[in-house]
Amino acid sequence: MFETLTLTTILLLSFFFWQNQRLGLTAAVPKDPNNRVEFYCSECLISLKGLLPKAAVLELNDKTLCFTPTGSQVAHQLSVQEGKLLLSQVGAPPQSISFLGAEGSVSFEKVSDSGLAVTVEAKTAEASHRVGLRLEVVYA
Predict the structure, then answer these.
(1) Which tens digit of pLDDT belongs to each residue from 72-129?
(2) pLDDT > 80? residue 54
(3) What is the DSSP letter of 45?
């Protein structure tokens, strides 16, 4: 009896481990294409919400944003290249802060005297997802 319960328990644990691996239930990045692009958008928004509120916007284009973060004197620039959101400082190489998929993009738009609208689109060959965010900034 004890051997049967032990064998059944081992088989059940093996089955659940296999299902977990197959479905990616505990993976850092979801395996499902729709969930993956939603994850990319969410991670990008978290990064932007940490950088941009109350920042001083120096230059605004559709695809790039030059700004000075709160409490800093150094100008930073956000741009997207090859599906990566890049943050660069003057005299330093750009660092990737978020991945948006191979065809992902970020656009910036001035919506009021103190409002900045950011549209994030994560796009892969299988799926795409678009979200927007409005932040309070200071225009220089």
Answers:
(1) 889 999 999 999 999 998 778 899 999 998 899 999 999 999 999 999 999 999 999 9
(2) yes
(3) H
104 three-class SS: coil
CB 123 within 8 A of CB 101: yes
Beta-carbon contacts of 117 under 8 Å, excluding residues fewer than 6 positions away, are 108, 109, 110, 111, 132, 133, 134
Burial 12-37 (b: 16+ CB within 10 A, else e): eeeeeeeeeeeeeeeeeebeeeeebb
Q: Which of 56, 45, 53, 69 is nearest to 135 (CA)?
A: 53
Q: What is the pTM of this model?
A: 0.80
**Closest to 82 (Cα-Cα) out of 72, 94, 67, 90:** 94
Encoding tokens for residue 6?
């032990």
DSSP annotation of 77 reads E
Closest CA to 133 of 40, 38, 19, 44: 44
